[in-house]
Amino acid sequence: MPERILIVGGAGFIGSCLAIGLQKLHPEWQIICLDNLRRRGSELNLPRLKSCGIQFVYGDIRTAADLDPVALNADKRISKVVPAT
Question: pTM of whole model > 0.90?
Answer without folding.
Answer: no
